[in-house]
Write the structure tokens for this entry.
Amino acid sequence: MSLAVPVAISFASPLAFLALLLVPAILLLRSAAQRRARRHAVRFPGVPVLAGVIGHEPAWRRHLPLAVLLAAVAALVVALARPERTVAVPDERASLMLVLDASRSMEAEDVEPNRLEAARRAALAFLDKIPERVRVGVVGFSDRPYTVVRPSPDRTPTEGTIRSLEPVGGTATGDALQVALDALPRRPAVGSRPPTAIVLLSDGQATDGVDPLVVARRAGAARIPVFTIALGTPDGVVPGGPFGGSLPVPPDPETMREIAAISGAEAYEVDDAERLKEIYERLGAQLSTKSEQREITVMPAFAGLVLLLGAAALGVRRQGRLP
């Protein structure tokens, strides 16, 4: 899983860029020196003939040593400004709870091979890719939360629970969210709360237990976001309808969006197994990492030194002196 974040470059000492005024200062001094040299030059009548024999040197070649020297000054000034880059690093304090619907409607095969198996594979891939020290737990539920693993760096119990889920019964989304909320770390007496979040995957409307929107408000008050994934298509069906027919089991994206919005998170709608894996991967990167500033002074400093040596070599080679 990529832990990349949008690249952002900042500078710890931006006032150092004032040193770039050295560039026009050097140009002015060189121009003044050249004018002075022309005023005091001694002319010899044979110089034009000698110049014709030697040939004319391109202007860019004459100015190349100075240009390289100015580039070296600019690079060293950038190094003095102490550039920093924003990178994503694992947040070892993070605790996540996966809340997985294992109600009977998850037998629907509108998402291949079926909803529950697609959810199982995506959740296991999620566990395999997030940083090892991030604590992850799981709640499996149908008409009640019937299996709970508290957040832990040990993935074995969580993986075992996910593999053991079987579709049966109704959908007690609110009860499952409350159990997940209770399993996450409480606010410490001193210091900030460790990063925590809940990822809820469900395909249907809640049929049992407490109203999930009530629990979503509790999560929002505790600053624990509940990211929701509504899985399935409107055409999903399972056996058990009237007269031996099929029973429609469309997802309920409206309620899932409300849960996410109330708790301060994002909602997703998925009707494809590959898309489900992509969303889990995105959430894994978002919830298990944090942005950190890393100084990258060494790169412009090295470039400045290389350019400085290059300018010196060009000056000595062309004129027998430094530029």
The chain has a mean pLDDT of 83. The chain has two domains: 9-82+297-319, 91-291.
